[in-house]
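[audit] Reproducing an earlier prediction to check determinism. Same input, same settings, fresh worker. If the tokens differ from the archived copy the diff job will pick it up downstream; this log only records the rerun itself.
[audit] input (173 residues):
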Amino acid sequence: MDPTRKVGSFTATTKRDGGASVIEWRILGNVVYLKSNTPGLPGTKDKPWRRINQAESANLAEGFDGAKMANPLAQATSVQRTNARHFTGTFDTAAVAKALSLPTPTSSSSPAPAPTVAFTADLDDQGRLTRYHLDVPRAKGGTYPMDLTYSDFDTPVTVQAPPTDQVAGTTGT
């Protein structure tokens, strides 16, 4: 992802219900395309891509900023350095929800949110964040795992829109 130019692509894989949901994202400014094998998301065999309308896209594109996704690390407590490049620790549940712009879990949630959530983080030999795992708090209680990998630092980002004949959905206007 190039946050300055707002251009990037990535694939998100979520494990759920005994299977894996895979969503491929392409971001070109405020235009976001997605392709998924997730039941219920738009797209067909002939038109596997969906262009998200611009009102939705602007918020989505900002949400894929890798630096923003790493914001919770600034809220870390009880940090342990287990070796030169690996860290573990915890976050306050409400602070991590706020850092990720998520709804804050409440004590009325079922199950009630834990006061803290765990994380692990790894650095490369230049001290750059290359991976971290976080248990993200759910608004209705509990958590779900989020694993982020950062790589290809200082590499130019080139992304193309999918072929028009493979795109279903809005025109983006």
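[audit] rerun output stored. Observation attached for the diff report: Residues 7-64+156-169 form one domain.
[audit] end
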